[in-house]
Amino acid sequence: MSDEAATKPKRKIRHLGILTGGGDCPGLNAVIRGAVLTAAREGVRVTGVRNAFAGLLHKSYIQLEPDTVEDLLQRGGTYLGSSNRDNPFAYPMTIDGQQRVVDVSDTIISNFREAGLDGLIAVGGDGTLAITYGLSQKGLPAICVPKTIDNDLLATDVTFGFDTAVGTATEAIDRIRTTAESHGRLMVVEVMGRNAGWIALFCGLSGGADVILLPEIPFSMEAIAAKLREDRASGKRFSIIVVAEGAHLKGGDVVVRALVNDPTEPRRLGGVGNLVGQKLEEMTGIETRVTILGHIQRGGTPSTYDRNLSTRFGVHAALNAIAGNFGHLVALKHGGIALVPLGEAAKGQRLVPLDSDFIRVGRSVGISFGDEE
Ligand code: F6P
Fold first, then answer.
1. Do both 141 and 257 map to the same domain?
2. Of 105, 161, 254, 272, which is the most exposed, with the fewest CB atoms less than 10 Å away?
3. Angle at 249 between CA 153 and CA 161, to 5 degrees
4. Atom of ligand 1 at shortest distance to CA of 269?
5. CA–centroid distance, residue 25 to ligand 1 (Å)
6. pLDDT at 119
7. How many domains in the chain?
8. Atom 16 of ligand 1 has which residue's CA nearest to it?
9. What per-residue confidence (pLDDT) applies to 346?
């Protein structure tokens, strides 16, 4: 039986659930608003599930009316709460005083039915997609919406949250630039993105960085030091390096800041900026400072682009759920909305291709990617 056939509803859709899973990002609330307003106009009720799949396990719900979501368009974060630790197929629980990992997927499906829900809209990244695909294979009628500031989902041209994160990081680099100039320093700015370099590449280009370090292009300290010396020799007074948290030395490994109970990515990356900054100061003698932008990139008001993309995703998720097109991800393909089967969407990560025009353009304007011999 195909995924779609397995989840095609036999009755009219009257009641949808919606949840947000994984790390939050700007635009989640705009998706919720788009879905709720659309469903209301079709006479369909929407129940919000709190804190991702944990809400279905603990029956933690909130009724979402047009009035409830009216002011959500501009608001960052998620009104419903989120979690990247509550995988129903490997759920951490304390049983008889012992920490155990148990499969609670059947309970989640029976709670979903008990709540009178006809379909679920799950908004999330690769972890949420994989979980929802697993649940849909067990009969849960679900449709997914892709989010993440990392922009690393293969099934969609772009995820919402990315544009806002890049805007925030660019503004930070602009500010760092003025103080770098005043003191003639080397400033290293570390940005998020996990194993994908999209945020670093885009804000590095738009912020006028001298060096951009991406997970996709392992770097050498000698190459970066040579570039800095060359720039100083030609009269440049200050330098900016943007480093993705997942960037690493040729033949080296990523820098891990913490290990967490996250089924998709237990390693929390972070700290490579400090290593790069310290080493370059030693090698070049240039006074150096390091800024790790961290969760600033995930917070705050969504950009215009993200508000509109999120609204489109929310509206199309609701319309497709009401039409019974479950087992799909609502994606953006060549500027238009497309449905991608969940089984396909849950596979693979979208990394920066080495032949990306953004890399080519960067090299043409003199940016080093730390890989020169
Ligand atoms: O996936 C989004 C993201 O912000 C990554 O860029 C980052 O590595 C990770 O989440 C941080 O996760 P947490 O909020 O659990 O520290």
1. no
2. 254
3. 25
4. 8
5. 10
6. 98
7. 2
8. 268
9. 85
